[in-house]
């Protein structure tokens, strides 16, 4: 065994691969020859099927068709007496006889066995017997004995036809069996070929795997080991073990021998270079500091070595970077070129300071062009020093920029909230004598509309212009800051207060209300300002900011576009508002809300047509609160949506107890239209109560359209699709009432109570009332007047064609039980048909 392995090891890899690939080629050729033989056999089967079996089946099919057609024509001949039809059938039968004869002749041409030819002869004999019997039946039929002819046809002719058809089916079955036998033989050949091919492929795969394993083990692995050993030798390792392939005399053995010779050569080379190792260490110190400028001086101040970065940083001429150059001359040239030391050792004293070993020092050198270098001097043992010079200009600029960004707004570059807070604390510490500091908190009016309608890029451009105008209004000691969004603040230092703050606030109001032009869009906004003055309104920054915010809240509540000073009463009001918010968040959970219902009556008959659901809050400490006292707060803190859903469900549940002809009106807040739940909430309330959607009226105000009229109209159409009615409430108080009526088919218009109140004393109010009544009639919308309190008002509204009225003259809002009692006590049949003679509901 061992001599054989040795002999194989001596054969070259080229010879081994040539033999292996030759065997593989022979295997491929043998497989190809076998495949060609099998394919030839399959081709013969295919040719046999195409030349004989398919024509045979086609001929048998024609025979079957002709036989069946002959039977159909014979049956028709037996059943008709029409001369023309008889002639046509006779002609058709003659053609079928010819077709059958042609098909029989075609079958004889491809029939290759005596059994097939005998079977065809039997069929033809039976067919002739059938045809003879059929002729007898025809003869009896033509001789005037139709019954005899019919008996022969049914008793003899039809059985003979079936006998012939049976023989034909036997021929078809025999031919089909021959085809199946041929297919089975072809399949057998295919399976045999497939088995042989799979065996050959398996053998080929096995051969490939064996060859791959052999190549990997005997060629690739040794080569990789040799390559890894060479890499380690190149990296400087001395103790490198080579693969144990030394007994091989092929190419691998040659590579191992060459690697061993290279390893021995490297060992000898390293021994020869040991004397120069001290010089290599010295220069390695300079190489390691290449990213920065490097210079090395001896104890006498003479330059030992420097890198190119050192000379380039200071613009030194080549002669001053040569070894032996004194530091004194280099330092003098640096001064001439405009470099000066701003911290650490002065350039003139560095040589003396570093002539003996000392501590590590750091100096900063600034160039005339604004660059800054950090110089680190490290003393060396035996005297002298090594200096590293780093350009830190970009780092210092980045640090300054980061510090600026941390305290300034990225959009406007104004100081941010953190810088504002620090400046405020400084201002409070240095306020002299009777001079006081003032804080002005600003909130832009109508800025959100700009963002929503024109987009944030336009809004950002507008904020930049606002910032510039604010900067133009303040003094040198003042500071303006952007706190976030559209909120700004100003610190006014010094000046006689409150006059100085009042003058500054008015100047800001005047400046910011002037039109702006941003990307071709002309914009008009305003601002509201809250002012707090130190120390009267607080001597701490947090207190002043809080009080200025409260003054700003008052300014926005008073109509915007104004400024307000902080007053102590604002703090109490704010505390009361916070308490109201806390109580309001718990009110729905505690079940403190209730609904009252105010009737809507027909102006012509006085009948109650429906009720408007009005929310009340039974506060545990403050008693019954009306909507105006808490609804605005609920809208601000986001509680109006769950409260509105509760009102819908509760009002619909109560309406389910009323007669089916009594409608329910529910007011919707504009905030509810921002919720994705509105349509679902209405649908759920209707489903839970079971009332018809045509009994529910949803009342909206014109302010709903101010934000995004397109989305509002889309939502109104979805609500309308539910079947509910939509009413325009407080009509006449908005900005584009007529445009809204044109955009959406409202079911009802409710004119605002302010016009009803002034209708007697103000001709303009009466004109509007008359116009709205005519408008409703022309648009097919019902008109309702709310706030009716006198008979004079009622009569005037009747004359103007209004449909319904609502107000204290009819009834105050009633609790649910009282509303049910009212419906039970007043039915249309019990009262006069005209409100001029009908008593009004008690104003209880």
List the defining traits of the structure above:
HlyB_4HB_MCP, Beta-Lactamase, Alpha-Beta Plaits, 844 residues, 4 domains, EAL domain-containing protein, 57% helix, 23 strands, 8-stranded mixed beta barrel, 26 helices, alpha/beta, transmembrane, transmembrane helix, disordered C terminus, flat, Four Helix Bundle (Hemerythrin (Met), subunit A)
- Tell the overall outline: flat
Provide the CATH architecture of the largest domain.
Alpha-Beta Barrel
Strand tally? 23
Structural class: alpha/beta
Number of domains: 4
Head-to-tail CA distance between termini = 125 Å
> How much of the polypeptide forms β-strand, as a percent range?
15-25%
Describe the structure in your own words:
It comes from Roseibium salinum. Residues 825-844 are annotated as: Disordered. This is EAL domain-containing protein. Residues 217-271 form the HAMP domain. The strands form four sheets. The chain has an eight-stranded mixed barrel with strand order 14-15-17-18-19-20-21-22, surrounded by five helices. Strands 2-1-6-5-4-3 form a six-stranded antiparallel β-sheet. The chain has 26 helices and 23 strands. Helices cover 57% and strands 15% of the residues. A hairpin with a 3-residue loop joins strand 15 (608-619) and strand 16 (623-625). The longest helix is centred in the first third of the chain and has 89 residues, at 146-234. Residues 827-844 have low confidence and may be disordered. It has 844 residues and is an alpha/beta fold. It has four domains: 9-218, Four Helix Bundle (Hemerythrin (Met), subunit A) (Up-down Bundle); 285-397, PAS domain (Beta-Lactamase, 2-Layer Sandwich), CATH 3.30.450.20; 408-567, Alpha-Beta Plaits (2-Layer Sandwich), CATH 3.30.70; 594-825, TIM Barrel, CATH 3.20.20.450.
């Amino acid at each position: 065994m061992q001599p054989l392995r040795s002999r194989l090891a001596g054969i070259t890899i080229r010879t081994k691969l040539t033999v292996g690939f030759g065997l593989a080629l022979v295997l491929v050729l043998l497989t190809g020859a076998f495949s060609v033989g099998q394919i030839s056999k399959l081709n013969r089967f295919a040719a046999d099927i195409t030349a004989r079996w398919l024509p045979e089946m086609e001929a048998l099919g024609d025979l079957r068709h002709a036989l069946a057609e002959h039977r159909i024509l014979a049956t028709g001949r037996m059943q008709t007496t029409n001369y023309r039809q008889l002639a046509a059938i006779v002609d058709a039968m003659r053609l079928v006889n010819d077709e059958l004869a042609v098909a029989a002749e075609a079958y004889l041409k491809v029939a290759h066995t005596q059994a097939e030819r005998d079977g065809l002869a039997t069929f033809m004999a039976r067919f002739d017997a059938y045809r003879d019997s059929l002729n007898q039946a025809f003869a009896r039929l033509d001789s005037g004995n139709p019954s005899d002819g019919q008996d022969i046809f049914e008793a003899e002719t039809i059985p003979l036809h079936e006998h012939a058809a049976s023989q034909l089916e036997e021929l078809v079955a025999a031919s089909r069996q021959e085809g199946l036998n041929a297919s089975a033989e072809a399949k057998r050949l295919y399976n045999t070929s497939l088995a042989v091919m799979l065996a050959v492929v398996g053998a080929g795969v096995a051969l490939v795997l064996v060859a791959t394993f052999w190549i990997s083990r005997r060629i690739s692995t040794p080569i990789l080991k040799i390559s890894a050993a060479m890499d380690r030798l190149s990296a400087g390792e001395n103790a490198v073990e080579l693969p144990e392939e030394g007994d091989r005399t092929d190419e691998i053995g040659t590579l191992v021998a060459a690697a061993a010779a290279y390893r021995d050569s490297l060992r000898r080379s390293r021994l020869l270079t040991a004397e120069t190792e001290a010089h290599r260490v010295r220069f390695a110190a300079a190489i390691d500091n290449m990213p920065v400028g490097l210079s090395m001086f001896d104890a006498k101040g003479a330059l030992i070595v420097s890198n190119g970065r050192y000379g380039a940083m200071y613009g030194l001429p080549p002669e001053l970077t040569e070894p032996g150059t004194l530091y004194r001359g280099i330092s003098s040239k640096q001064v001439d070129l405009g470099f000066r030391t701003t911290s650490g050792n002065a350039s003139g004293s560095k040589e003396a300071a570093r002539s003996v070993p000392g501590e590590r020092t750091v100096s900063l050198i600034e160039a005339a062009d604004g660059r800054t270098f950090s110089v680190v001097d490290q003393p060396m043992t035996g005297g002298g020093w090594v200096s590293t010079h780093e350009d830190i200009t970009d780092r210092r600029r980045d640090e300054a920029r980061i510090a600026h960004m941390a305290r300034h707004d990225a959009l406007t570059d104004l100081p941010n909230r953190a810088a504002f807070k620090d400046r405020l604390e400084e201002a409070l510490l240095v306020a002299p004598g009777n001079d006081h500091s003032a804080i002005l908190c600003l909130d832009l009016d109508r800025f959100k509309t700009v963002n929503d309608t024109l987009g944030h890029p336009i809004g950002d451009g507008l904020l930049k212009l606002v910032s510039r105008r604010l900067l133009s209004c303040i003094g040198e000691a003042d500071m303006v800051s952007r706190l976030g969004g559209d909120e700004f603040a100003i610190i006014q230092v010094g000046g006689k207060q409150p006059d100085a703050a009042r003058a500054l606030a008015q100047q800001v109001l005047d400046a910011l209300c002037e039109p702006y032009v941003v990307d071709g869009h002309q914009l008009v906004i305003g601002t509201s300002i809250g002012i707090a003055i130190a120390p009267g309104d607080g001597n701490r920054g947090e207190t002043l900011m809080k009080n200025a915010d409260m003054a700003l809240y008052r300014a926005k509540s008073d109509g915007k576009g104004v400024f307000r000073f902080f007053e102590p009463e604002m703090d109490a009001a704010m505390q009361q508002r916070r308490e109201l918010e806390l109580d309001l968040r718990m009110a729905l959970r505690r079940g403190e809300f209730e609904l009252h219902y105010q009737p809507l009556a027909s102006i012509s008959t006085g009948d109650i047509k429906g009720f408007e659901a009005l929310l009340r809050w039974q506060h545990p400490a403050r008693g019954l609160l009306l909507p105006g006292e808490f609804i605005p707060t609920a809208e601000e803190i986001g509680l109006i949506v769950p409260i509105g859903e509760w009102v819908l469900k509760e009002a619909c549940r109560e309406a389910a107890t009323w007669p089916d002809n009594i409608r329910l009106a529910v007011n919707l807040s504009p905030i509810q239209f921002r919720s994705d739940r509105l349509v679902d909430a209405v649908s759920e309330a209707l489903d839970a109560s079971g009332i018809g959607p045509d009994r529910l009226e949803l009342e909206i105000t014109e302010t709903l359209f101010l934000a995004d009229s397109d989305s509002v109209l889309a939502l109104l159409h979805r609500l309308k699709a539910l079947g509910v009615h939509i009413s325009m409430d407080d009509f006449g108080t908005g900005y584009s009432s007529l445009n809204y009526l044109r955009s959406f088919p409202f079911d009802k218009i409710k004119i605002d109570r302010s016009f009803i109140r002034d209708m007697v004393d103000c001709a303009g109010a009466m004109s509007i009332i008359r116009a709205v009544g005519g408008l409703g009639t022309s648009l097919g919308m019902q008109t309702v007047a709310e706030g009716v309190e006198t008979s004079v008002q009622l009569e005037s509204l009747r004359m103007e064609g209004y449909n319904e009225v609502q107000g204290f003259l009819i009834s105050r809002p009633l609790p649910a039980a009282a509303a049910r009692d009212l419906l039970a006590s007043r039915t249309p049949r019990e009262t006069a048909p005209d409100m001029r003679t009908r008593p009004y509901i008690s104003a209880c």
